[in-house]
């Protein structure tokens, strides 16, 4: 047992690497705070474009969503960060990671929002149009708020997955939590930094995970 603690839960090692891990955690949180709202906006835009009811546009959107959801996020990051420079498109690691997360999650959020829009009864739109409200205003101020409320649980769940996916930044040597833990492990020659990083992920994300689970359960009970 002592050997296990010395290797995987060494207190002295944890204390020495904690400042480095906290700096990595700050980068991780920054990535999530930038990528999440952009992903939500792009997903909502895709869902609203479906409402245009144009066959060509709908086909293009379906292809876009399938591409976003089918390409593994690590492969997508490698293409954006390592391949695009050969085409003259170079970007900082932070921008590349955020763009990767946004592209990947646009497909998921787009489908969630589209399901939310479809769940709003049509008479809601008809009532707004009958009152002389323009169609764009009906969508933005009547339909969208109800749609978001109807799919709040899957939106929150996908937001949690996005936050965890920020660990892909280690692939482009960004000093986020996983990357700094790997560097610290190489310096101290034991896996305590990785265990500590896992603990920090848990501490930060567990409360949000429980809130998502409770809201999902509440939604299910409300339906039945």
From TrEMBL:
Annotated InterPro entries: AA_ABC_transptr_permease_3TM, ArtM/GltK/GlnP/TcyL/YhdX-like, MetI-like, MetI-like_sf
Which stretches make up the ABC transmembrane type-1 domain?
25-213
* Keywords of this entry: Amino-acid transport, Cell membrane, Membrane, Transmembrane, Transmembrane helix, Transport
What superkingdom does the record give? Bacteria
Tell me which family the UniProt entry assigns to this protein.
Answer: Belongs to the binding-protein-dependent transport system permease family. HisMQ subfamily.
Any one Pfam family match given in the protein's UniProt record, by short name: BPD_transp_1
Subcellular location(s): the record lists: Cell inner membrane; Cell membrane
Q: How does it sit in the membrane?
A: Multi-pass membrane protein
Any one of the GO BP annotations: amino acid transport
What name does the UniProt record give this protein?
Amino acid ABC transporter permease
Q: What does this protein do?
A: Part of the binding-protein-dependent transport system for glutamine; probably responsible for the translocation of the substrate across the membrane.
Q: Which GO terms describe its molecular function?
A: transmembrane transporter activity
Q: Which organism is it from?
A: Borborobacter arsenicus
Where are its TM segments located? Answer: 20-52, 194-213
GO cellular component term, pick one: ATP-binding cassette (ABC) transporter complex
């Amino acid at each position: 047992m002592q050997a296990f603690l010395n290797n995987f839960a060494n207190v002295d090692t944890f204390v020495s690497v904690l400042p480095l891990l906290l700096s990595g955690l700050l980068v991780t949180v920054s990535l999530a705070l930038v990528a999440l709202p952009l992903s939500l906006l792009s997903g909502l835009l895709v869902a609203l474009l479906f409402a245009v009811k144009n066959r060509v546009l709908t086909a293009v959107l379906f292809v876009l969503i399938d591409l976003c959801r089918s390409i593994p996020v690590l492969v997508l990051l490698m293409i954006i960060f390592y391949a695009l420079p050969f085409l003259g498109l170079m970007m900082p690691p932070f921008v590349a990671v955020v763009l990767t997360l946004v592209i990947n999650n646009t497909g998921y959020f787009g489908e969630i929002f589209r399901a939310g829009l479809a769940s709003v009864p049509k008479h809601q739109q008809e009532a707004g149009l009958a009152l002389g409200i323009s169609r764009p205003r009906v969508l933005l101020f009547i339909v969208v708020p109800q749609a978001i409320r109807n799919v709040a649980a899957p939106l929150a769940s996908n937001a949690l997955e996005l936050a965890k996916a920020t660990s892909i930044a280690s692939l482009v040597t960004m000093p986020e939590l996983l990357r700094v833990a790997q560097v610290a492990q190489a310096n101290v020659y034991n896996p305590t930094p990785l265990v500590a990083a896992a603990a920090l992920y848990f501490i930060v994300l567990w409360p949000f995970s429980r809130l998502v689970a409770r809201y999902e359960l509440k939604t299910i009970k409300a339906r039945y």
